[in-house]
Amino acid sequence: MKSNWKNEEAKKLKGDLLKLRVYTSQLLGNNEDLVMHGGGNTSVKIKEKNIFGEEEEILYVKGSGWDLGTIKEQGFSPVKLSALLKLAELPTLTDVDMVKYQRMAMTNPSAPNPSVETILHGIIPYTFVDHTHADAVVIITNTPGGKSRIQEIYGKNMLIVPYVMPGFILAKTIYEMTKNINWDTLDGMILMSHGVFTFDHDPKRAYENMIDIVTKAENYLKKNKAATIKGAKKGKVNALDIAKIRKQISTTWGAPILTRLDDSAASVAFSHLPNVKKITNRGPLTPDHIIRTKRTPIVFSKNLERDLEKYVTDYKAYFKAHNQGEKLLDQAPRWAVLPKEGTLSFGPTPKHLRVIEDITRHTKKAIFQAEQLGGWKALGKADLFEVEYWSLEQAKLSKAGTPKSMQGKVALVTGAASGIGKACVESLVAQGAAVVALDIVKSIQSTFSQKEVVGIQCDVTNSKQIEKVIEQAVLHFGGIDLLVSNAGTFPPSSKIVDMDEKTWQKSMDINLTSHQRLLKMCTPFLELGHDAAVVLIASKNVPAPGPGAAAYSVAKAGLTQLGRIAAMELGEKGIRVNMIHPNAVFDTAIWTEEVLSRRAKNYGLTIEKYKTNNLLKVEVTSTDVANLAIAMLGNTFGKITGAQVPIDGGNDRVI
User: Fold this and answer.
1) Which CATH number fits domain 410-588+621-647: 3.40.50.2300, 2.10.10.20, 3.40.50.720, 3.40.50.300?
2) For the domain bounded by 239-396, which CATH number is listed?
3) What is the pLDDT confidence band of residue 397, given thresholds at 50, 70 and 90?
4) Which of 103, 178, 529, 647 is buried most, with the most CB atoms less than 10 Å from its CB?
5) Residue ranges of the domains in the chain?
6) What is the pLDDT of residues 548-570, one digit of tens each?
7) 466, burial (CB in 10 Å: exposed 0-12, middle 13-18, buried 19+)
8) CA torsion sign, 619 to 622 to 623 to 625?
C-alpha cells in the first residue's frame, strides 16, 4: 500500500486543520482496500472561541451519511470535546441517548449526526484520528489464532481490542483499557473483526501510520502465501435463468429488484470453489457490511425454489434464535453464488447494486485469502444479529424514504437517442426505473450519463443484434419489465403509383417487422417481469392517414394491429399492451427543418401556425408523449390493455 500524500497539495491548505482533515479523509476514502461505502470515520480536534469569547476544544468528526471518499467540510459534525469526555465516564449509555447527547453537544445544529464512534474519537488524545476497515488487517483477525498473528506482526506497541459492539460499548471498553496507558507508546489500535485506528497531532503522520500498518498486514499475507484468487474462464450464462432468479428474489423481497451478474475471472473462480457454500455461510468481512449484504449469500443449485425456501427458513430461524422484540426484516438475500458461473447482486437501484458488488468483491477476496491462513472465521451469529438489528443501523435504512413508483423495474426503450425515445428514457429514470436505451446511432453509448441508463447501439432490424442486446440488458439489470417500442422512420412522401420497392420495404422493416421481432424476443422476459407492460409508439396516420404516406401509414397500422393481437395473447400472462398515436411531434429526428418548412407550406401556414394546427392550438412535444407512455406503463393503466390513445392536441379527422 502506497501513501498518496502530496506535500504541494497539503501546502495549499495553509495549515487549516479542518481542510487538512478533509484532504486526508478523502485519501483514505478513495482507497477501497481501506474504506467502502460510508465505512470508517475520521476526526480532528480544533480550538475555537464561542459566542462568549471563551475558547473551547471542538471535535470535528465525520457525520453520519457522509462518505469519506467525497466528504467536504460540511460533512463533519462539530461536537464539544468536554461533553464527550464526560459521556465516556458514564457507566452505561443507551444508543438512543448517545445520539441525543452527542447532538446536544454540537455547536452547529444544522450539521449531520456525529458518527457512532464520536466518543471514541474524543477520548483518543491526539489532534487527528483515522479509522478504517482495512481489508488486509481484518482478513488476518478473521482467522483462527488471529490475535496471535496480529501480535506477531505488530508487537507490543499495538493496542489490540477484542470485538465489542460499536458505539458507546466500544468507546467505554477502550476508555477502560487506556486509563493507565501511555498513548505515546502506541503505533495504533486494531479492533478485532472490525478495523484499525491511527492517530497523531500531524495529519500526514496519522495518515501514513495507517498506510504502514496495512502494508505490514499485506506483507504478512504475501509471506504466508495467502494469494488472491486466480481467475477462471467464464462460461455461458442463460439470461432466462437470471430473469427467473430475479423474479423469485423480487417475490421474496416484496418489491421489484435489480439483479446483476459478476462474471469476472475472479468471481467465476470463486464460484468454482468446492467448499463455497460452507465458507460463505460463516459471515461478512466486517459487521457493518451486514446491513448491506445480510449475514450470508444464497448459493444456488439446480433447484432455485428449494434453495430460496431454505434460505428464508434459515434466516427466520436465525432471527428467532436471537431476536429480543425486534421486527423481522425481509428475508431476501442480497447476493448469490452461481456455481461455476459467478456471483449475483440484488438491490432496488443501480446504486445499491454497485454497493453490493463492491462489498462482495472484497468479501470474496478476503474469504479466499483467509482460507489459506487456516480458515475464514467471521463473527458469531449473535454478534452479527446485534449489528443487523441495531436501532442506529436500521435508522440509516429508514432514511431512504418512499421509493419512486418504478424503482426496481427495468425498461427497454428503442429509438432512444432523440425525440420521443429519449424523453421516455428520461421520464422512466425520473420515476426510478433502470433503462436499457437502444438506437442505431453510435452516440447512444454516451447520450445518457445516469448510472440508471445503459446506452447500446443496435439495429433493430437485425435479429441477432436484438437477441444480443436483450441478453446484455438481463445480465446487467436482471430482466425486462417494461418495453417502449419506439424506433421508427418517416419515409419520403410518395404516391402509391410512384413508390419504389426499397422505400416500401424499409418502412415495413423498421416500422413494423422490427417491433414484431423485438416483442417476440422480449416476451419470455416480460412473462417473468413485475407488472409487465408494453407501449407501442404508432401514429395518428393509423386512424387518419393522408395521401403520399402509404409506406408509413400501412406499417404503423400493422404495428397497431400487432399490438391489439399481442394484448389478447399476453393478457392472460399479466402483460399489458397499449398503443399511442402521436401527431405532429416536431422535436423528433424525423421533423427536419426542411420537412417542417415543406409541410407548413403545403398547408399554407407559417411554421408556428403549423405546429399548433389542432383543436386545442397547442404544440405536442416528445415529453408530452413520454408522460403518456409513463402513465400506460404504470398504475394509471394498470387495468387497461389493447387501448389506442391519440396525443395530438385534438385532430378533427381522428375525432
Assistant:
1) 3.40.50.720
2) 3.40.225
3) low
4) 529
5) 7-223, 239-396, 410-588+621-647
6) 999 999 999 999 999 999 999 99
7) buried
8) positive
